[in-house]
Design goal:
Elements (H helix, E strand, L loop, with lengths): L4 E7 L7 H21 L3 E7 L5 H13 L4 E4 L3 H13 L3 E4 L12 E3 L4 H15 L3 E7 L2 H16 L3 E8 L7 H10 L3 E5 L2 H18 L3 H4 L2 E3 L4 H6 L9 E4 L8 H13 L8 H20 L4 H8 L3 E4 L2 E6 L4 E3 L3 E6 L2 E7 L31
Parallel strand pairs: 1-2, 1-3, 3-4, 4-5, 6-7, 6-8, 8-9, 9-10
Antiparallel strand pairs: 10-14, 11-12, 12-13, 14-15
Helix pairs in contact: 1-11, 2-3, 4-5, 6-7, 11-12
Length: 383
């Protein structure tokens, strides 16, 4: 008997200022589509669209997909693009599967969130940074909600713990002239730099800061590390070799994880995209989104939104990062926080939670003074 077939949208800006990350996300989604096509309970027919990083194009393309009968769309990277399209999905009874870590403080009826919530990435990172490097933070970010909200969470948490945010700087998405910013960071000499810069801006900052510190004889990774919740393996691949090592990243997935599911994921990804960078959290979140969608479609027996939403709340997936499942209250996932330090084009995992933790997108169950490294730590050092 023929398997049910459903068209799904894949909406990623594979051109534009954050094309590297978006390309990784599309690859992860297409890999899941391919695997489901080989042995899944349903057949998925992908309809791929590229907004090119142009905010106005996201709503137009979402409306086009929904008008053509596509009810489920996996896509968007930036929070601004997600917020731009949600009203369209609400109006036309569609579901957005959002596969990116984000700043939280949202739970929309027409969205399933498969990336990390703030208690799964930024809070563990702040605790690690303050316990390891000190209490003076310098925040830099791209000028939109992702950076604004992350810096606010960091500022409130650092201040509650007796620390200081010495400065905050925001730049347009795609800005690469960072000389003044780098000079300001070096003059401030913070304990660490928290970066929410995305795409080419983030890469330009890492390179410029590293070269400026080398010229001044400053051990930047040791005395003034850059930490982020969005630096990934494809970004490292784009960086010049001398600027790659020593950056701190908080994520729920790193390519270096060793378990049978991730070994297979990495191997299949390499075979499918031999010239692409290593797998990343963005690729895995897109892969997870498609897998959960397929399972929910199979259980529901329809692509009708309410039926699929009810079914996905009962899905549990053995993902490359480990087991994941949906929190029915918020439609976010239980995920496993990890912290990595960059080395070459990958990350050494230096801390990780022993099990997935419940998402807390509004931080109602998380206090700024919660410790992630108590005497019986929830995070363990990974060798």
């Amino acid at each position: 008997m023929a398997r049910p077939s459903y068209r799904i949208g894949l909406m990623f800006s594979t051109t534009g200022p954050y094309s590297t990350v978006a390309g990784a996300m599309l690859n992860g989604a297409l890999l899941a589509v391919s695997e489901i096509g080989e042995a899944g309970p349903v057949e998925l027919v992908p309809v791929v669209v590229d907004p090119g990083g142009d905010l106005s194009r996201y709503t137009a393309l979402s409306g086009q997909l929904l008008a053509e009968g596509v009810r489920h769309v996996v896509g968007c990277y930036t929070s601004s693009s997600r917020k731009e399209v949600i009203p369209c999905f609400e109006k036309h009874d569609g579901m957005l599967w959002y596969p990116s870590h984000y700043e939280g403080f949202e739970s929309a009826d027409n969205v399933v969130y498969t990336g990390a919530a703030p208690n799964q990435h930024i809070l563990p990172l702040i605790d690690y940074l303050m316990s390891t490097f000190g209490d003076r933070a310098f925040c830099v970010g791209s000028n939109y909600i992702w950076a604004w909200e992350n810096s606010r969470i960091l500022r409130e948490t650092v201040t509650a713990r007796g620390g200081t945010v010495v400065a905050e700087r925001y730049l347009p998405v795609g800005e690469t002239d960072l000389r003044k910013l780098v000079d300001a960071v070096i003059e401030a000499r913070p304990s660490f730099v928290f970066s929410s810069l995305i795409g080419v801006s983030g890469l330009a900052f890492l390179s410029a800061l590293r070269h400026a510190c080398l010229a001044r004889g400053i051990d930047q990774p040791g005395t003034m590390p850059v930490a982020s919740c969005n630096l990934s393996e494809p970004d490292l691949d784009e960086l010049e070799p001398e600027a790659r090592d020593g950056h701190i990243s908080s994520s729920v997935y790193f390519s270096a994880l060793r378990n049978p599911v991730n070994d297979a994921f990495v191997s299949r990804h390499a075979a499918a995209y031999p010239s692409a960078p290593l797998t990343s959290a963005d690729a895995e979140a897109s892969y997870i989104a498609v897998k959960l969608l397929a399972g929910a479609l199979a259980e529901a027996g329809t692509d009708e939104i309410l039926a699929v939403k009810a079914a996905v709340a009962r899905q549990r997936l053995a993902a490359p990062q480990g087991d994941v499942w949906v929190d029915a209250e918020t439609m976010h996932l239980h995920l496993t926080p990890r912290i990595g330090r960059s080395r070459g084009t990958e990350f050494d995992i230096i801390r990780e939670e022993p099990a997935p933790i419940r998402p807390d997108p509004y931080l109602v169950r998380s206090s700024p003074t919660d410790s992630w490294f108590a005497s019986a730590p929830r995070l363990r050092v990974a060798k």
